[in-house]
Structures are given as C-alpha cells and as structure tokens.
Amino acid sequence: MPQSFDFRLGDLTGPRPETPDVAHTPASSAGDSRTFYIETFGCQMNVHDSEKVAGVLLGRGYRQVESLDAAKLVFYNTCSIREKAAHKVFSRLGEFRKRPDSRKIIGVLGCVAQQEGEEIFERAPWVNLVCGSASYSKLPELLEDLEAGNRRVTGLGTHTDETFETEMTRRDNPFRAYLTIIEGCDKTCAYCVVPYTRGPERSRSSALILEEVRKLAGAGYSEIQLLGQTVNSYQDPAARRMSFAELLVAVAAVPGIRRVRFTTSHPRDFGRDIVEAIDSVPALCDHVHLPVQSGSSRILRAMQRMYTREEYLEKIALIRSGRRSISLTSDIIVGFPGETEQDVEETLSLLDAAQFDGVFAFQYSPRPNTSAVHLADAVPEEEKGRRLAVVQERQREIQIVRNDALVGQTFEVLVDGASRRPGQWSGRSSSNRILNFASPHSDLLGQYVHVRVTRASPNSLVGEEVT
Ligand code: SF4
Q1: How many Å lie between the centroid of ligand 1 and the Cα of residue 373?
Q2: 168 is a domain residue
Q3: Residue 264 CA, ligand 1 centroid: distance in Å
Q4: Do residue 86 and residue 135 come from a single domain?
Q5: Which one, of 179, 229, 225, lies nearest residue 205 by Cα?
Q6: Rounded to two decimals, what is the model's pTM?
C-alpha cells in the first residue's frame, strides 16, 4: 500500500511504522470500477486505520491497486497533527485540478477530514467523500451512498457511543498486527488536535480484544502492537474491568503470541504495574515510548501536559528500576509559544538525564481548534529550526554512545525485511532496535533469529546471525 510516513507530533507518534511487507494485487486498468488506492499520512494509528478501511473495501469486493491511475476509488487518509502534513494532502488533491477525472471517486479520511469537514468540498469540489476516523464503522453505508450515485457523502461524528470496530481489517504486515484498544483522547494538550478530530476516549472491551488476538495468533501473527493515542489510559468497559497492565499480560498469554508492544503511553498514567508486568512476562517487549515534549516545567504547564519535569523523570526512574533493561524513546516539541533559550537548555539537560534510546523531535506548528493557537510569543520559524537542530544533535551524541555500548551484545530479532542484496536482512529486537544483519539462510522473513551486533550507528545496528 503506498504510504507517506510523515513526521508526527504528540502522543500519536512513537517509532516509525515499518514498511509494509505484503504482496499486492497487480494494478488493473482504469476501467475496473471496483479498484481502490489508498495513501496514508501520519502515525501508526493512521496506518492501522487504513488497514481497516482497506478491509472494509476488500470485504465489499473492491481490489487494492498500487497506482492512482488504475484506481476508481482514491482515498487519502490524512494527518493534521502538523501543518506540513495537512498541506501535503491538499497538494495531492490539487493534482486533480490539473488532471480532472470524473470517473474517479475521491475520498478524504482521517484527521484533516474531521477538522476541515465539508469545507473540503469547497476547496476541492471534485472530492466525493469526507470521513473522520471516528466514523469508519459507517464506511459501508457511505460506500453504498456513493455506489448509488450520491456524489457527496460525509461521516463526521465524534461524540458517539458506538464502537470504533470496523467489519474487517486487511493488515499490511503478515507477522506484526496493529490492534487499536482505545480511541480518542480526554486530555487537553494545548497543541494537539486529537481530542477534536478523534473525539473522547472510548476503550474496547478486553473480551473483544482477546478474541481478536486469538484469531490473529491463529492466522500466524506472532507480534501484537496495541494502539491508542493514550494507550495506557485504557479503561476496560467489560464486566471483567481489566487494568491496562492486566490486559498486557493476558494478550501475551495467548498461545502463539511471542511479542506484545504498546504505543503511545501518557506519562501521567504510566504506573508501576506496567513495569512489573514487563518484568515478569518476557513476551512483553522491553521498550516504552513515553513522550515528554519539553524539559521545562514552565512549558509543560503551558502545554497542559499534566506533569512537571521532575514527575516525568520519576517515571523514567521507575521504568529504569525494573529488572529488565527497558529501552526508552520519546517525543520533543521545540518552539512552543513562549519557549525561551533557558527552556531549551532544560530540554537538553533532560535529554542528558533521561538517556533516551531515540527521540522524535519536531518544530511546533499552530493547528486550528487547539488552545495554543491563541498563545502569544510565537517563536520565529528560523529560531525553531535552530533549536530543533540543537536538540537533534544532542540526542544524536547520546545515541552514538548508547548504541556503541551494544556492540558485542546479541538480540533476538523478528525478521521483517530483506535487502536487495542476497543474504542481507533487517529485523527488530524486543527493545525495538533495528538490526541489519547478514545470514547465509534464505527465507528468514517472519522468523525469530539471534543477531550479534558488530557495528553501531546513531539510528541502527549492524550485526551477524548467530546460531
Ligand atoms: S491531547 Fe491526547 S493525543 Fe494529544 S498529545 Fe495530549 S495526550 Fe496525546
């Protein structure tokens, strides 16, 4: 599936999604009326949303094609977390102004759809469908409307008690399955559009989650990644009332499941029980993505993050107090309104103190429908760029040292990529480190192999298979 993985902000981020690894149906001619093309922008939640949309379409007899030209239905699953991503979507839509094709049905899905609503029809009158992520369960009805000849349909509700299940999901990766356990967000971070575009928090029942995990294990998936904007704020609506930590343990206990990940955690809701679960269950991956956003308590307050620098560092200490060595990654926003040189220094000193294994750093960009949009003291763009470079460079130095220390260690990796060069493979460790390695074996995709690290760079490791 064609995807544009854009950089992400907020707790939507986490490690970059992997390149999908699935055989696609060959492109057909443009005359085929039941073909679709979908392009995804944004985080894992969006990637998984596209898998759900693809599932709905496949279930209705559509066929996915890799070329926009060959598709009857063209869907853009959008991200509005950064201004640049939203611009990119409108630039894609603008292409249809230059090359109009009345045979195509164009749909805008996701956060930009939710945010801009019916105004998208004004800006791009050739768009036929606008559907926010909380309304994907309505896609079959919307498709029926389109198939019946209706040229403008919308699904824009968010305040819904309905489940966010879709009837079918077509997953891109044959070994690792994304699984949404909580949708929306009840927090109010000043820079974030998610509460507006995805609506309030709705958790899926533990019984349904476990049923789906059993099915996924039966279908050959060995790694499950539980998703949510604030995944650890999970509240089981079932009578069982499992805590998030209990759910992690239960998912890991499903026969056939070898690894369980979760993204993204909110620091305020991150408790000792999660660390204890990781400590006691080897199938729970030893990696936590915990966005801090700033090292300055003053800026964290302005961001409405609901913790101070000190409280965040206490969470780090809690995670590091576990028996297993848990790798830690985070997100940073630079250039939030009112951020001073002193605040940036505090962020740099937090990087030194936290010793993250990876950081996704971004420049703040004001988004509509967020409270930060009204804040004064904007940081000039050029200065934001300078601060970003400083933060990235400090983190790069940290990663050089941390990764160098891994040379000689052996990791079990799930192989999920093959290089064009024969004998070269790529996989991820439980700690979510990417290892590129050599092996004389063929057909390693989907296998778990042990790899000894022979060389380190700031962002990945190179190694060799050991038997
Ligand atoms: S509002 Fe919710 S989704 Fe957005 S950054 Fe805050 S916690 Fe994350």
Answers
A1: 15
A2: no
A3: 10
A4: yes
A5: 179
A6: 0.85
